[in-house]
Specification:
It is a single chain. The longest helix is centred in the C-terminal third of the chain and has 21 residues. The chain has about 130 residues and is mostly helical. The N and C termini lie far apart (about 60 Å). Helices cover about 75% and strands about 0% of the residues. It contains seven helices and no strands.
């Protein structure tokens, strides 16, 4: 029997990091609410949105997920080594599949990027 290494707390922090890196503000709002319901503090949520965690294992998992998202093989290699040191090398394949399932469609990511650009432009005009 295999144990699911991506616990709900690991999952939500990875999803927060990925949504933040994608500037997916709609997803961030709902994920922040979900994280608060799971008893994550505001500081933990902010850390996840910045791509980290106060928990070392979760921090490595989040960084690995972001490396997968970015296609950063150097960071991916380092984080896999760190996951092995934690005795959890199997989480790497689970994380790859998890991030793949979360990949936004091209249309959605372009729409989100356009909305983020409009939001930034509107903020600059209002100053």
């Amino acid at each position: 029997m295999s144990k699911n290494l991506i616990t709900p707390l690991v999952r939500i922090q990875i999803e927060l990091a990925l949504a933040s890196s994608r500037s997916d503000f709609d997803a961030l709002r709902s994920l922040e609410l979900e994280a608060k319901q799971m008893a994550l503090s505001g500081a933990e949520i902010d850390a996840a949105k910045r791509g980290g965690s106060f928990d070392l294992f979760v921090d490595i998992a989040v960084k690995f997920a972001l490396a997968i998202e970015a296609g950063d093989e150097a960071v991916g290699t380092v984080t896999i080594r760190q996951l092995k040191a934690f005795g959890a090398p199997d989480i790497a394949s689970e994380l790859r599949a998890f991030v793949k399932r979360l990949e936004p469609s091209t249309a959605r990511s372009k729409a989100g990027h356009s909305a983020a650009c409009r939001y930034g432009a509107d903020r600059l005009r209002s100053k």
